[in-house]
Amino acid sequence: MMTRQSQRVMTLAGATAIALAGLLGQTSSASAKTHDIHMTAVESDIVIDGGGEKYAAWTFNGTMPGPVVRVTEGDTINFTLTNPATNKNPHAMDFHAAEIDFLKNYKAINAGETISYTFVAKKPGIFFYHCGAPPMIQHIARGMFGAIIVDPKDASVWPKADREYVLVQSEYFKNPGDVQAMFDRKFDGMMFNGGIFKYHPFVTGGGKLDAKPGERVRVYFVNAGPNEFSSFHPIGEIWDNVYESGNPANKLTGVQTYVVGPGSAATFDVVVESAGAYPLVTHSLTGALRGAIAVLLASPDAKPSTNLMPMVPWELPAKAK
Amino acid sequence: MPNRLTIPLIGLSLVLFMHNAVRAESTHERVALMLSGPDCPSVREGVTTALQQQTGVLRADQDLMPDHVLVDIVRPQMTEETVAAIANAAIGGGQCRAEIMKSCITAELPNYDTDPPRPAHRQAHSH
């Protein structure tokens, strides 16, 4: 039987719980941030291999891929795209993380124009962004793409990563003006983060991705295409978890290879157990052996990595002789 | 005077032609040299130094990959076979061996001819 004293305590506890819940709700919506993201369409040359080969790219902010945008689920993005008057082509921006009207927001703007729109990143994950100006196949092939990470509001929904990288796969066409070759899928190379064998230390100018044994390495993977599927596999390892579209709710466990189609993305976790080299490749070998190999090197003395996309842009050392 | 200019112009053209011909033929390549054996840590520095002194070697790196020396070479002045030979000469007689690293992520494209089509009778299965 409940005494008057205990009834009073229960009432007080209930009221406190309701007040706290309300407060938490307020905190949650109040903690959502607003980000002003401004990008500029830049038509410029980009180094795409370790020999210093340059490519007449079209980019966001001068790099291929464009900058990684990182927000938290529920955040608002005020986005502005500028197409400078010095450019020669129309450009546009399509964020796969947005749920907004395509006609109004994703239209192409001419050189000298600016477009702005706002969206709320409602779903967590890793999403593709790209130019949608016609011919879209060419605008993507020439480098107008990138990644946006929408972190889950509740970080405890998945294991904490010790180290994170963003890898964007895309096809390389030697002649950037040959749109027919793009339609015919006659690609000449396959790139990770805008470079052929960029993270392959056995290739001239190539680097690597670092990790320490035992670390959970999280790879946010985007396939920019424009056409080819990626069959993403860690040589010498097994993906501990794969999250389709990078959403923690879409969790797979113990995956050897996972297919990411053009315009799609997934998040891959791997825990490398011992020191050594673990090449991350598309097991579609026509792509891997033409550039899509990134060697993850696990070493006890690996330095901390703060850059989600190392070697973007690809700056080559001056030749010694 | 055309006659006075002709010989220097021909000479200049010849020099430019030869320079371009040499440039067109030379290619850069990275050779991955794997060092295996218990004595390798003590000889790796010497191997790297020996390679760096060679004509046709742009750079030799012993830090990028464990147990490897990565050598940037210019062909045809240097070849991967010569790189391995120089490395093994620098190692001397200890318990260490330098080998060209080849694996499933070797990036080079094959330069052998494709297999000729087999005659139809050889392809037929007998039951």
Task: Chart the SSEs and their pairings.
The complex is a heterodimer of chains A (321) and B (127).
Chain A lengths: L3 H28 L2 E14 L6 E7 L8 E4 L3 E8 L10 E2 L6 H4 L7 E8 L4 E6 L5 H6 L3 E7 L11 E10 L6 H5 L5 E4 L16 E3 L4 E10 L4 E5 L4 E6 L6 E5 L2 E3 L3 E8 L4 E7 L2 H4 L4 E6 L23
Parallel strand pairs in A: 1-4, 3-8, 9-12, 11-19
Antiparallel strand pairs in A: 1-2, 4-6, 5-7, 7-8, 9-10, 12-17, 13-16, 13-18, 14-15, 14-17, 18-19
Chain B lengths: L1 H24 L1 E10 L3 H13 L4 E5 L6 E8 L4 H12 L5 E4 L19 H4 L4
Antiparallel strand pairs in B: 1-3, 1-4, 2-3
Strand order of the largest sheet of chain B: 2-3-1-4
- Tally of helical segments of chain A: 5
Which residues of chain A form runs of ≥5 with pLDDT under 50? Answer: 9-28
Q: What CATH architecture label of the domain at 26-100 in chain B applies?
A: 2-Layer Sandwich
Kindly state the number of beta strands of chain A: 19
The number of helical elements of chain B comes to 4
Percent strand of chain B equals: 15-25%
Radius of gyration of chain A: 22 Å
CATH architecture of the largest domain in chain A: Sandwich
Measured distance between first and last alpha carbons of chain A: 92 Å
- Give the H and E element order of chain A: HEEEEEHEEHEEHEEEEEEEEEHE
Oligomer: heterodimer
Mean pLDDT of chain B: 79
Query: How many beta-strand elements of chain B?
Result: 4
Largest interface: A-B, 26 and 19 residues
Query: What general outline of chain B do the C-alpha atoms trace?
Result: elongated
Q: Mind explaining what this structure looks like?
A:
Chain A has two domains: 34-154, Cupredoxins -  blue copper proteins (Immunoglobulin-like); 157-298, Immunoglobulin-like (Sandwich). Chain A has five helices and 19 strands. Chain A has helices spanning 4-31, 102-105, 136-141, 179-183, 285-288, and strands at residues 34-47, 54-60, 69-72, 76-83, 94-95, 113-120, 125-130, 145-151, 163-172, 189-192, 209-211, 216-225, 230-234, 239-244, 251-255, 258-260, 264-271, 276-282, 293-298. A six-stranded mixed beta sheet of chain A has the order 10-9-12-17-14-15. In chain A, a hairpin with a 6-residue loop joins strand 14 and strand 15 (251-255). Chain B is of the alpha+beta class and 127 residues long. Chain B has a domain at 26-100: 2-Layer Sandwich (Alpha-Beta Plaits). In chain B, strand 2 (57-61) and strand 3 form a beta hairpin. In chain B, helix 2 (40-52) crosses helix 3 (80-91). The N and C termini of chain B lie far apart (86 Å). The model of chain B is unreliable at 120-127 (pLDDT under 50). Chain A binds chain B through residues 50-51, 197, 200-208, 235, 275, 277, 279, 281, 288-289, 293, 295, 297, 299, 319-321, and chain B through 28-30, 32, 57-59, 64-66, 68, 70, 72, 101, 104-107, 109.
